[in-house]
Predict the structure.
Amino acid sequence: MARITNWEPEKEDFWLSQGKFHARRNLWISILALMLAFIVWQIWSVTAVRLTDIGFTYTENELFTLAALPGLFGAIFRIFFTFMPGIVGGRNWTVISTALLLLPAIGIGVAVQNIDTPYMTMAILAALCGIGGGNFSSSMANIAPFYPKAEKGTANGLNAGIGNLGVSIVQFVTPIIIFVPWLGMLTGGAQALPSGSNIYLQNSAFIWVVPIIIVTILAWVGMDNLPGTKQSIKQQSVMFKEKHTWIMSWLYTMCFGSFIGYAAAFPLLIRSEFPNSGGEGLAFLGPLVGAAIRPVGGWLSDKLGSGAKVTFYDTILMLIATGGVIYFLSVHHFIGFLVSFIILFLASGIANGSTFRMVPFIFTGEKANLAAPVLGFIGAVGAFGAFFIPKIFGWSLNTTGSSNLALYLFLAYYVISLIVCWYYYSRRNAEVKC
C-alpha cells in the first residue's frame, strides 16, 4: 500500500477526492482492533463469575478484585498508550498493541484449567487484560486526526461505540462458548460443575486467539501512519497544564467510567443481589445498549452543534436512572432493576459520544494539536471507573450487605458532574461553548 505523504482533511477537495477513502479504511480496521481490545479487557467480568463453580476457592471480594484489576491496569496503560501513536505512528502501534492481546488470551485459557493456579497468577493475568483497555486511548488518538472537525464527533463515536460492543459481545458469547465441548477438547479438558455437568472455561479466552491474529495482520496491511502527526512526549505533555484537560477528564469519567465500571461489575452484581434470578446471563444487554448508542451521542452533538448540551441533559437522565436502580433494589424487583440499569447504560453511552465531541472544539487554533492526546488522556482517566466501580460495589456489599451505598456515592458524583458541565460549557455565558 502506498504511503500517505500529505494529509489535509479540512480542505474539501482533498477530503472528497481521497481523504475520506483512506480515513474510512483506517477507521473500520481500527474498530475491529478496538472491539477485540474491549473483549480481552472484559474477559474477567464473565469468567470470574464461574471460577468458584469449578472449584476455585475465592471469596466474593477476591472475585470483584479480579473483575476490577483489568480496569485499574487498563487505565494505567491508557496513560502511556495515549502518547504512542504520536511517537511510533498510529498504524505501527495498532499492530503492536493488538498483538499484545495474545498474552492474556492464551494465559487465561491455560490458567483456568487448573484450580491450583495461585491467586497471584490470576491477578497478573487480570492485570494483563488491561492491555485491551489501554488500546482505547491510542486508538482514539490515532483516528481523530484522520477526520475534519465537522465529522470528528461521528468518527470518534463510531470508533469508540462499535469498539465498545466488545464488552457486550464477550458477555454474550462467554456463557455459550464455555459449553462447546469440541473446542474445549481441542484446548484442554472439561471442568465439572456441582450439578454434574461439564464446562470448558478455557474457551472464554482461547476463542479470541485466531481473531486477534487476523486483525493484527489486517492492521499491518491496511492501516496508515499519518504524516505530520508525530509528537514527542514533551510536546504532548503540554496538555497537563490545560485546566480543560482535567475538567473533561472529570466529565468523561462520569460517563465512560460508569459504562465500563458497571459493565465489569454487572454480572457479579446481579448474582449478589438477585442470586436466584439467573439474570447474570442478561448482563450483556447493558453494555450492548451503551456501546450501540455511543455513535448517536457524537452524531447528535454534530447535528445540534453542541456536545455540551447533549452531555448536560444526558447527565440528568443518568441521575434519574440511578434513582430507579436504587428504588428497585430496595423493593427487590429484578426486572425494574435490570431496565433501570439498561437506561443508565444507554445514558452513559450517549454522553461518551458527546463528551468526546466536545474536545476538538475546546482545543482549537494553536492548541489544536493537543486534541488527540487529550482524547487519549481523558480516556485513560475515565478507565479508572472500571477499577473503582467494582471495588466500591464489593466494599458496599461487604460493609452493608447491599450495593445501595455505592449507588448513592455514584449519584452524588453525577450531581457534581451536572454542575461542572453547566458552569463551564453549557450555560449561556459559559467559558467555552462546545
Notes: The radius of gyration is 21 Å. The chain has one domain: 12-426.
